[in-house]
Amino acid sequence: MTQTHTSHYERTDGRAIELTFAEPENVVRGGLVVLHEVGGITDGVRLLISSLAAEGWLAAAPHIDDTPTPDSVLAATDIALAWLVERGVQADLLGVVGFDLGGTAALLVAANRKLGAAVSVGGHRVAEKPGLVDIARELVSPWLGLYGDAGDELGAAEVEKLREAAAEARVATNVVRYPGANHRFDADPQAAVEAWQRTLSWFDAHLR
């Protein structure tokens, strides 16, 4: 398993953040910002970072508060993207992936930053305006949404509204629902494997 590391990263303009990252052992295919779940950098987040690195992606997770604002999510993502660029990743090979709370964060980033690709695995509702459906209409990065019907906070009806809204965007989008999976995909191992393969395929298709 590829090891993860945590370091303090500070830009010349004074912006700084803690990053947990993993580097591929061989050729770097591109760079991915990983937006974590509630609870911060958990063992599950480290496993995801390591797994992405094993697939050839330089993966970095900025440490974000459990109650982030849209501005703080975008600011943290921008710093992580800058870190990836400093390590030689080209702009068209940058993407973002998030799950649980990070799934909503990834959708927000995909509507506000032009990246090569974005993936949301599960997500939380947004209390303030604009809501998730309105955000999805503004997507500027190719976006894949993966949602489990069993226990996902959004619910099947809201996910279908997300699908319809995302289809109005001028970028490639896809939304997939898994009837037996929850928002963490640990209730249905088969769905988890398929969701992982869909995630890798999305990045393969758009970051090239």
TrEMBL record:
Fetch the Gene3D superfamilies from UniProt.
Answer: alpha/beta hydrolase
Checking InterPro entries in the record gives: AB_hydrolase_fold, Dienelactn_hydro, Dienelactone_hydrolase-like
List the Gene Ontology MF annotations in alphabetical order: hydrolase activity
Q: Which SUPFAM superfamilies match?
A: alpha/beta-Hydrolases
Dienelactone hydrolase domain mapped to chain residues: 21-206
Which Pfam families does the entry mention?
DLH (PF01738)
* Protein's name in the database: Dienelactone hydrolase domain-containing protein
Tell me the organism.
Amycolatopsis methanolica 239
